[in-house]
Write a structure and sequence with these properties.
103 residues; Ubiquitin-like protease family profile domain-containing protein; 4-stranded mixed β-sheet; 4 strands; Papain-like_cys_pep_sf
Length: 103
């Protein structure tokens, strides 16, 4: 983890969005963490109401992990920066185009 932190992670002081590609049961979708809008955006071109709650739970688990990761003071240059609790953000599911079933 230290390698990733040192080489790929910058300061979280002015972080606007985090793009998190997710995969669950061979299905891929995207979660965007909107730090200023305090939203967890769910983008999926093959939505399925049967597994929606499972995918939202998966996103919530990732949000809790990000809470723990960003709680470390080492990611902030300004110690007075606002620390946001990502797992408390509201879910947003915008209407987007959908692919055909079985495509």
């Amino acid at each position: 983890m230290e390698f990733i932190e040192r080489n790929y992670m910058g300061s979280a002081d002015n972080l606007l969005k985090i793009y998190v590609p997710l995969k669950l049961n061979k299905h891929r979708y995207l979660m965007i963490v909107d730090m200023w809008g305090k939203k967890l955006v769910y983008l999926d071109s093959a939505k399925c109401s049967v597994v929606l709650q499972t995918r939202l739970n998966h996103m919530q688990d990732v949000a809790k992990y990000l809470d723990d990761l960003l709680a470390a003071g080492k990611f902030y240059n300004d110690k007075s920066s606002i620390r946001r609790t990502i797992s408390d953000f509201e879910f947003l599911e915008p209407t987007i185009g959908q692919q055909r079933p079985i495509s």
